[in-house]
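Subject: Interface between my chains keeps coming out wrong

I've been trying for a while to get a sensible model of this assembly. When I model each chain on its own everything looks fine, but I need the whole thing in one frame so I can look at the contacts. Pasting all components below, labels as-is. Any help appreciated, I'm running out of ideas.
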Amino acid sequence: MNITEKILAKASGKNKVHPGEIVDANVDMVMIHDLTGPLAVEAFKKIGVKNVWNNQKVVVILDHQIPAESVTAAKLHKTMRIFAQDQQLHIYDVGKGGICHQVMPEKGHVLPGTVIVGADSHTCTYGAFGAFATGIGSTEAAAVLATGKIWLKVPEAIKINVHGRFQRYVAPKDLILHVIGKLGASGAIYKSVEFRGATVRDMSIAGRMTLSNMTVEMGAKNGIVEPDETTRKFLEGRTTKLLAPFESLISDADAAYQKIVDIDVTDLTPQIAYPSSVDNVKPASEMSNVQVEQAFIGSCTNGRIEDLRVAAEILKGKMVKDGVRTLVIPASQEVYMQALKEGLMEIFTDAGALVCGSTCGPCLGGHIGLLAPGETCVSTSNRNFIGRMGSKEAKVYLASPATVAASAITGKITDPRELEA
Amino acid sequence: MKVTGTAVKFGDNVDTDVILPGKYLVLIDPNELAKHAMEGIYSAFPEKAKKGVILVGGRNFGCGSSREQAPLALKYAGVECVVADSFARIFFRNAINIGLPVIEHKGISAAVNNGDEVTVDFEAGMIQNVTKSESFQAAKLPPFIMEILADGGLIENLRKRLNKK
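Reply #2:
Try treating it as a single job with all components included. I did that and got this:
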């Protein structure tokens, strides 16, 4: 079995599972947030059970519309606070957490080998820690709150073997954009994507999270990396729970894969996903004078300290071009504090970028930095769909933090390696 | 369960941001959501769907965000069921969970034109293009999913199951 099959077998009390088999899995952790949570709470109340199945296994995170951008949002937040209080759940409120997919592992709610579901499509991010993690809807979340169980079809798996060393200013974001461009927006539909190879072993947790995070953009059910010492180092001090032995989570040598993709990153260059589909990917060096009005560095894809460091390295001592609104949003309070300590906030502010508090905000066109008709944004986030960041007549190009920082300086989408030339 | 209606057709990779833009996620009333169904690519859709339609999608229908407000908006706008070459998995589950029938059949989008009359027999897994007198045998939904749909969604289904225990 591969790692995903091993986790699903254990969670459903079986010795072995096969792709296509439907299992009733025990859930180890469920996450709901301020935009999907209220519907889940409403649905939960209709089920007729008094309490959630296990209040230690439910996490509520306010992140999408925080701080409340309207009275309507404030009411939703209030609903979530009351539910969390009544049920005695873990809750990360404004100023106490940040973007759900960063907060979940930071606060020790993500463990290798566990089954985690979240009412958010980017829940697949936790696969970076060797967990089986997938997104669900609000009603399904309500059912999990009541029963602690979920039916899952065991997915076929795609193995992505990555080797070679990244060139300077080429990042895991460029790799995942390249993979999505290659496989297509429906290329991994219903499937598990497993990242392997020396490049992934050498990669930081932040990089692995970027890879897992965007697997949903090719339709994947989960995106997973086998846990190792890097995983253990990140989690140590963040959880009091014993980490399961990782040996039982390593894919067997004879594990079956529906497809195997080999990628050498040695010659990979910065990549861009053009509007309005994430698989519309071309090298940044081929961009011909695409002017931008907004540059956004942040989101659950690329708002981590490693992302902010590379952006700051490029922006240090420079000014963002007049006419380019540059937003920097750390993925969590922890990232915010670390960036502050390292002096990155000063670099961004000196460069004329606006640093905002941790929120999903602009990524989903919720609030903070929406686009007007005819405007273009280069963004480190994960989706460039029509209307995603505001007006449906606006355009969004997806790129790495280095590319976005370089583009903020030049005012047009720029291969960051060109600034050094 | 049998559904008949006029087909309204969309292409491949229709994402949940165009089905229901993010700015409306703060709306709770499904009738309010319905007013914005498909706003990202076809703002006249709610008017069109009023009388009841069958939505036909290409590959990967409903990709992107897990927002259940997307199938809710479609259901309350008047969509009787969604037929597509393939679905994004979260949308597929969400639709069933809120009682919006969905069925998948590779190649169905090429076989249906906008405005064709379509009938779907969910028990038989049969999709019929009445206008063109053509029938397609799709994979049947498993019995437990048919039960969820028959109960009008997962919550009612779960209530029943928990009461039985």
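Reply #3:
Confirming on my end. DSSP finds 15 helices and 18 strands in chain A.
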